[in-house]
Amino acid sequence: MLPTATDLEPRRELLATAQALNASGLNQGTSGNASLRIEGGLLVTPTSLPYAQMGPHDLVALDLQGRPLVEGQRRPSSEWRLHADILRRRSEVHAVVHCHSTSATALACHGRGIPPFHYMVVVAGGADVRCAPYALFGTQDFSDLALQALQDRQAALLAHHGQVALGASLAQALALAIEIETLARMYLQACTLGEPPELSGAAIAQVAEQMQRRHYGIAASGPG
Ligand code: 13P
């Protein structure tokens, strides 16, 4: 059963995830946002409020069209559309994390995704992590382009902006965002010696099989 708009526990969990984004160095200031699927919609972080000052009742409950589920709430994240569109189109996803982590954003500023230079790219669902073309934050275009880049994937980079990671739980989405940042950092480091060679399609398929056989990686680590 999904949590409801007024349950306290999911609010605490979402707040802890949002604060962990800053504590882990993935985010700074008021950038980034996070959401959790609830009965009838989503719970999302408010716009422009520093995470350290946020309490459980500052989180905003919306239906998937963006209409408030609770009266007298704060303004939702400017990216509520991105969160709602993902949760509407991807029934397996229950949590979304968006952040401006440094290395992922550095790559995205060149419009580049993460190629299959390392076997762990497979934790995002395929042979690479795509980069969505640039669009203005908070717009339907931004959400549409992100959704396209997320096709058959659990994460994407966002040109001149940052990254977005999905999960069956907040723990999974956060762990994946951390992994994406780590892969981006490793890739940038590897690029200092030139473009690293890519794993073949066959090698990537073997990794995917091995991960499935061993229940290995992000999907196996979270509670969802
Ligand atoms: P919000 O404070 O509105 O969530 O915006 C932060 C952000 O990262 C926009 O992409």
Describe the protein in words.
The chain is built from seven helices and seven strands. The chain is an alpha+beta fold and 224 residues long. The protein has a seven-stranded mixed beta sheet, sandwiched between helices. 1,3-dihydroxyacetonephosphate binds next to loops. Residues 30-33, 45, 47-48, 77-79, 137 line the site of 1,3-dihydroxyacetonephosphate (13P).
Seen as an oligomer or otherwise, the chain set is single chain
Question: How do the strands line up in the largest sheet?
Answer: 3-2-1-4-7-6-5
Spell out the CATH superfamily. Answer: Class II aldolase/adducin N-terminal domain
Order of SSEs, N→C? HEEEHEHEHEEHHH
Total beta-strand segments? 7
Classify the helix fraction into a percent range. Answer: 25-40%
**What is the overall number of helices?**
7
Radius of gyration, CA atoms, in whole angstroms: 17 Å
Report the uncertain regions. none
Number of domains: 1
Which sheet architecture does the biggest sheet show? 7 strands, mixed
Global morphology? globular
The CATH class: Alpha Beta
Can you name the CATH architecture?
3-Layer(aba) Sandwich
The bound ligands are:
1,3-dihydroxyacetonephosphate
Strand content: 5-15%
Instruction: Give the overall average pLDDT.
Output: 96
Structural class: alpha+beta
CATH topology: L-fuculose-1-phosphate Aldolase
Distance between the termini: 13 Å
